[in-house]
């Protein structure tokens, strides 16, 4: 019995990793504190991908750049508490995009938002990208945090392709 | 019968109760214009008032929508001419009030009361055939009696009474009418304006006001090339404040008047109004003639203003400033978490897209921002305000849902003066000694618990809305101001 249970858990874990991979994103293996309990998983949907470079409308002080909306959906029914956000340009963490998750992500249209939490099966939304006169070709965000079952998770979003300038 | 009578009685009581509730609700919503020394006050609180010329209100086909729009963009009041001949007129030539004109005026005033707008009711006897200054006294007293229940008005007995054409009204006539108005309604704030571009004009207006005991110095100032600059306003306002009454600058330079210079861009008007406020004026009017005649042309005042990106639409969009607070590290902005309703951070990146870092500012002092004003910051979700928990000494959140003492901050800059684009300011929780402070000067949390001001308590104000060209030297260029915020589709007024 013990062998069967271990095999089943292993299969579930492998499927979770596969599903995350299917979305074009990467989710690191959760900390095995409660391996029998479900783990937060995410699906990212960009408003447009690739996103074109726009000459205006990025933010109030830097009008030009690449920007679009994103919805970060929790899909496995486990609430998640993010504690770090890293935004990457061309694969490298961009220090000039250092922000907290709560400064960037909020409620999706028409939904309630609890700061610092992505509810089970809930979503957080944001405007993402970069306002700049420089040239980049991709954007990606990474969130880290802990889910309601105590798993420590780091999730990398799919790449957002930045259109030619 | 007994049952029926009882039923009728109950119904009557319900009707009375309902009407009473409506009355109480209406009065609770109304605002009261008074005078405190040389300032106007709204519901007992002194406030610099920003008016707009809306002379043709009596003939405006969508006055409900017009007034709602004007309030929504930040005007405090309108200046109307109820005897203007571009619409129904209030008075007959014998001084009696025309029922249709009075109905129309009451509609305007009721709507203004609903919107909490002040109305400058300026009479122009010359527009009514047969009306003379002597008969105008009867008409204005009739209007005084008819409008006694309105607390949000002031009367101007005669527009440009000193101009020696058909507008002229002698000092004696003005005095007689003023005394008659006060006899009918002692509480009615009443003045009569003078239009004098000469150097001695302000002194004349001051003396005139003092001799007659008028409540307000209402003045149409010189429209020379310096009309918008601080020295000009300091000179005329200082002179007129000697009367000890509110100085109301009722007709500064008008927009696109080909006779005069410096009226083609909002920038002039933005500089004029801040000059007026700093000089100590009590009120200032944005003088445009787009609302003078609605017999032809666009039916909504908003569309008329929008049709002129400069100066009208840019000026209109400047009245409720939308600002960004940049932290001392130069790379982060203050931002409400999730756009509002939760905590506040000071780590929004200047390179990140979006607009959560933009706050709409309500200035309780009225008019453009100057050092020492009490302000509130509305968040991007349109539902919340920055709030100093406990009134200061604790956290800063964006959880306030209305403006109270916890949502009020004193904005200050070194040396005082206008809060310009790029100005470094501090924010103090209301009148407390607690300053808003960004952890490590930005990039982290923010709270309202600093007992002293230093680098971490310094924030740079960047305007996202149209602002004066008088900016802090050395500021980098800023994005194009947003001139056309989306507005709901309007319905025409019910006919």
Major β-sheet profile of chain B:
9 strands, parallel
Helical residue percent band of chain A: 10-25%
What is the CATH class of the largest domain in chain B? Alpha Beta
Largest sheet of chain A: 6 strands, antiparallel
Helix/strand layout:
The complex is a heterodimer of chains A (165) and B (495).
Chain A: H1 2-22, E1 26-27, E2 42-46, E3 53-54, E4 65-74, E5 80-89, E6 92-93, H2 101-104, E7 105-106, E8 123-131, E9 138-147, E10 152-156, E11 160-161
Antiparallel strand pairs in A: 1-10, 2-4, 3-4, 4-8, 5-6, 5-9, 7-8, 9-10, 9-11
Chain B: H1 2-29, E1 33-36, E2 39-42, E3 45-46, E4 49-53, H2 63-73, E5 77-80, H3 99-115, E6 118-122, H4 133-146, E7 153-156, H5 171-184, E8 189-191, E9 194-195, H6 201-212, E10 217-220, H7 230-241, E11 247-249, H8 266-279, E12 283-286, H9 301-306, H10 309-316, E13 322-326, E14 332-336, E15 344-349, E16 359-363, E17 374-378, E18 385-388, E19 394-400, E20 409-413, E21 423-429, E22 435-438, E23 444-450, E24 459-463
Parallel strand pairs in B: 4-5, 4-12, 5-6, 6-7, 7-8, 9-10, 10-11, 11-12
Antiparallel strand pairs in B: 1-2, 2-3, 13-16, 13-24, 14-15, 15-23, 16-17, 17-20, 18-19, 19-23, 20-21, 21-24, 22-23
Tags for this entry?
heterodimer; A: alpha+beta; 6-stranded antiparallel β-sheet; 2 helices; 11 strands; B: 495 residues; TIM Barrel; 9-stranded parallel β-sheet; 10 helices; 27% helix; elongated
